[in-house]
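Lecture 7 notes: from sequence to structure.
We start with the chain below.
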Amino acid sequence: MSRHPSLSRRRLRRLKMRLIVSIASALGVLFMVGVSLMVGLGSSESDVRQPAQIAGKSMVLKAKHGLGLTHTHKLKGPLQVAIKHLDRDRAITSGSPFTLEAIVVSSEYLENVRLKWVLPEGVRLESGSNEVVLNSLNRDEPQKISVQLVSDSEENQQVHIQASAQLRGMSFGESAQFNTTDQQLIDLQKEELLERSQKEMAKDSGNQQKIFH
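Predicted structure tokens for the same chain:
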């Protein structure tokens, strides 16, 4: 009779050990499943973000290599344009017509060169065309177009001419500005500045020759 209690205690111990091992194994499996799910979610999230990251890098590379240059910088084309007042000796007054001439020249042969006058409020077209298309523009051969305008104000008004064209699939343009009342003063200041700079350059050149001699 004394053996039965000891046997029952051993069985209970074995059952407890098995139960503990089973619980530990189950917890281990659950832990591994949780880790696997977290890793899977992390990888899928990185996969989702990857195209955006790649796109961002490609945009940065494009910016570094200047692929988006047409949107951020003005392309310098072969066109040059200027405005000349044909009645320069006569001041522009309100209600009196005046004639402006646009001179356009190109360093390349161009076709379909578009010239457009941009008039501010208070300046109206008296005669001529507001927009002209030149079928062709030969290299270094200036072409001229003129319009007659009337200003309804004694205040300074800014008139613009825009020139645009295409060359080898690339669009470009240039513009010039004319001031109805301030242009003479501006031109005079430009001439004085040019004359002054030429004198300074000649003076510097003379000083350098003296040093070398």
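Points to note: The radius of gyration is 41 Å. The first strand starts at residue 79 and ends at 85.
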